[in-house]
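QUALITY CONTROL LOG
STEP: pairwise intake check
CHECKER ROLE: data steward
CRITERIA: each record must contain a sequence immediately followed by its structure tokens, with no blank fields

ENTRY 1 OF 2
RESULT FIELD BELOW
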Amino acid sequence: MQKTSDYQRLLYACTQEGCSLCRVAQENAHRYLDAWQYDLFTDVEIREELRRTQGFCHDHTWQLVRMGASLQLAQAYRDILSDAVEQLQGSTEVPVPQSGGLFKRFFEAKRERPQCPACRQREQAEIRLVNML
């Protein structure tokens, strides 16, 4: 078996306290966010993906803030909000009032949000690591 960097990180994580898979998967998501902070935030395809997913999840957004990527996040979320405003202005569909209470309508209208790019990186790492084991 070829000893990849994932294998080496997993082997080291086995000597640490806690879940080895979770530790390596979280490190993988952190490396993605670090790369996004310095290089990927200007990539056109990555920016388009962020528009599609409506940004990062709550946890990864704040992780980026703690990493010092506030300016990059501001630029990315400006694109996301501008895109959302364009979609709302271009929408000709008039919402039809539904019966039921306000909370019922809110929860029925809530859509499944696409997965955050960093969460997807973590999930893909988990799948690779489980297959490696």
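ENTRY 2 OF 2
RESULT FIELD BELOW
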Amino acid sequence: MKNSNLFFDSDISTEILDNKNIVIIGYGNQGRAQALNLRDSGFNVTVALRNDSPSISKVIEDGLKYGQIDKVICDADIVCLLVPDSEAPKVFNRYIKSHLKEGSALLFSHGYNIHYNLINYPNNVDIIMVAPSGGGAMVRKEYSNKSGVPALLAVEQNFTGSGLELAKAYGKAICSSR
């Protein structure tokens, strides 16, 4: 273990997220909860979906912005890849890899694909993880109850030098530091 710390709301500023375009890819278990929590925390969130995604109606019902994956990635400052681990490498290679802008962050909520080198990311972006210790329904419920679900944070690649601050701020915005 390289570094082990506990962070709480009072330790974290979310200012680093101000004026950032956050794109959530995947609107399932974690994607929906994190998108709603980020929006309700006052941040700019867009859900990226395929044109034929069955989740479009749910995103509209939830009142979130959405767009086609490869179109909204181009302006993203933070790209949250929240699809199942088995699908993540395909989604990354097909829709994300060639559209990531230098200095952006690629965020995961599980370390599987990075740990096992299944995603070959570029060296000019931050690679971070914010992994809530509970399912999406719990993450959303606890946020709504003014409580939270702890998360593990990790920085795999710190291109900008702000990876940990970004991960902490994102964790606070989804309720993981309460």
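INTAKE CHECK: passed for both entries
DESCRIPTIVE NOTE, ENTRY 2: The chain is about 30% helix and 20% strand.
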